Every structure is written in structure tokens, then in C-alpha cells.
Amino acid sequence: QSVDVGLFLHDIIDRFEMIAEEKEITFTRKIPAKPTYAKMAADKMTQVIDNVISNAMKYSPEGGNITIAMLHQGHQLQISISDQGMGIPRESQAKIFDRFYRVDKARARSVGGTGLGLAIAKELIHAHKGEIWAESEYGKGTTIFFTLPYYAMKEGGR
Ligand code: ATP
Ligand code: MG
Question: Which of 55, 60, 116 to mutate to test the pocket of ligand 1 (most atoms within 8 A of CB)?
């Protein structure tokens, strides 16, 4: 199944914007207008992006900004979700993709979750021959990157 990733991102961000109003979180979209297709099942794509954006929201301060960017890199598409939240200590940055791993207990208590979201995202991305990783500065913010095999333009959508 091929998915128009840009369209997908916009739909998901629209949905999050409604929830985010309460916390006064703003979204910035850096998404090319030209249709860009990736080989991935739509429901799985939604699951990955939902997970990453809801983390960004959970760990963002009131009034924070979340930037979602998409770019081509050769045969891959790179998607990134950046927040201005509390960040993740360097030693935890690889572990957040492990099942049930949560950075610290205080954080775990104040914001709900099971610690499965990113483990599932990683499995789904790997199943599609992509990669997923985090870059974060503790106290400043986090960016989650992932790649997907990029597909040449296709006519007529799905
Ligand atoms: P679930 O997704 O199952 O509801 P969760 O959000 O705690 O629970 P993950 O999405 O797997 O689990 O994330 C694992 C941990 O990584 C989180 O508990 C949190 O400590 C840390 N983390 C993830 N994303 C961010 C982020 N954007 N900023 C700061 N910490 C993060
Ligand atoms: Mg999560």
C-alpha cells in the first residue's frame, strides 16, 4: 500500500491541533506540497506518528511548539517531530525504544503511559525497512526522526 505521507501528516496534525488548544501548544508544518508516497500501510503509519506526536505533547510545556518536518533523502523519506519539552538524558536516548522503558519515575507518574509506544513504533518502522532514532538535549527538547522507503510519484493517489 502506498501512502501520501504529506497528506497523512496534515490530517494527523489537524486532529492534534484540536486537542492541543487546551495546552496552548502550537504546531509548525514543514511539509512539501508535492505528493510524496511511501510504502507503508496507512493504519501503521498513523500509529507511529500518533505515538510520537502524543509523546511530544505529553512532554511539552504549556505554550510550546511542535515542529513536524518531512524531507527526501535519496531513496528515503525522513520525517522528524521536534518539541521544546524536558528532553531525554543522553544515556536514555537509545533505551526509550525498548519495551516498558520510561525515563524516570517522576515523569512516569505525572504523565500516563505504559512505555510501549516507541517500542511499537520501532517495530513498525523496522518492518518497513526504515530507521527511527532520537536526538535530544536534556532540558531543551527532543527530536524523533524516522525514515521510510520513498516511492516515486504515483498517479491517481492510492
Ligand atoms: P505509551 O506510549 O505506551 O503510552 P510512554 O509514552 O511512556 O507510554 P513511549 O512512547 O515508548 O512510552 O516512550 C518511552 C519514554 O521515553 C517515555 O516514558 C518518556 O520518558 C520518554 N520520551 C518519549 N518521548 C519523549 C519526548 N518527546 N520528550 C521527553 N521524553 C520522551
Ligand atoms: Mg508514548
Answer: 55
Q: What is the largest CA-CA distance in the chain?
A: 50
Please write the tens of the pLDDT for every residue from 47-95: 999 999 999 999 999 999 999 999 988 889 999 999 999 999 999 999 9
pLDDT in tens, 38-58: 888 899 999 999 999 999 999
The CA distance from 20 to 26, in Å, is: 7
**Nearest bound ligand to CA 121?**
1
Shortest-distance Cα residue to atom 12 of ligand 1: 115
The preferred substitution site among 16, 80, 96, 97 for testing ligand 1, maximizing ligand atoms within 8 Å of CB, is 96
Distance CA 107, CA 63 (A): 19
pTM (predicted TM-score): 0.92
